[in-house]
Design goal:
Helix content: over 70%
Shape: elongated
Strand content: under 5%
Number of helices: 4
Oligomer: single chain
Number of domains: 1
Number of strands: 0
Length: 113
């Protein structure tokens, strides 16, 4: 029994005498200076203006993309119509009438009738 007691005493002594690992000190965040209500409003307005610019830029990108796609559709449609005019006399007559009705005279020079 003495042997058991001495082992447990040794273990207790080791546990208490061992250097305890110190936990790293928590780093506190630097304290932010409190803004006055006027300064806070100014900061928020600045952020609002920046976000408004970003929104405007994104809308402009969408508009430009849509415009490019619309132009591409018109080019493809026009190419198909011009090709079809060469092969179908009835379609050529209809297109010629539509062009004469809806296109400026100066632009009609672009087409061979």
């Amino acid at each position: 029994m003495d042997n058991l007691q001495s082992n447990s005493n040794t273990m207790n002594d080791a546990a208490t005498s061992a250097p305890s690992e110190a936990k790293p000190a928590k780093r506190s965040k630097p304290a932010k200076a409190r803004l006055s209500p006027e300064d806070k409003i100014a900061a928020l307005e600045l952020k609002q203006n920046q976000l408004a610019e970003q929104i405007k830029d994104q809308k402009a990108k969408i508009t430009a993309k849509n415009r490019k796609e619309d132009t591409r559709r018109k080019i493809i449609t026009g190419a198909i119509a011009l090709e079809h005019m060469e092969h179908d006399p009835n379609f050529k007559n209809v297109m010629t009438d539509l062009l004469k009705k809806h296109v400026k005279e100066s632009d009609l020079k672009l087409f061979e009738f």
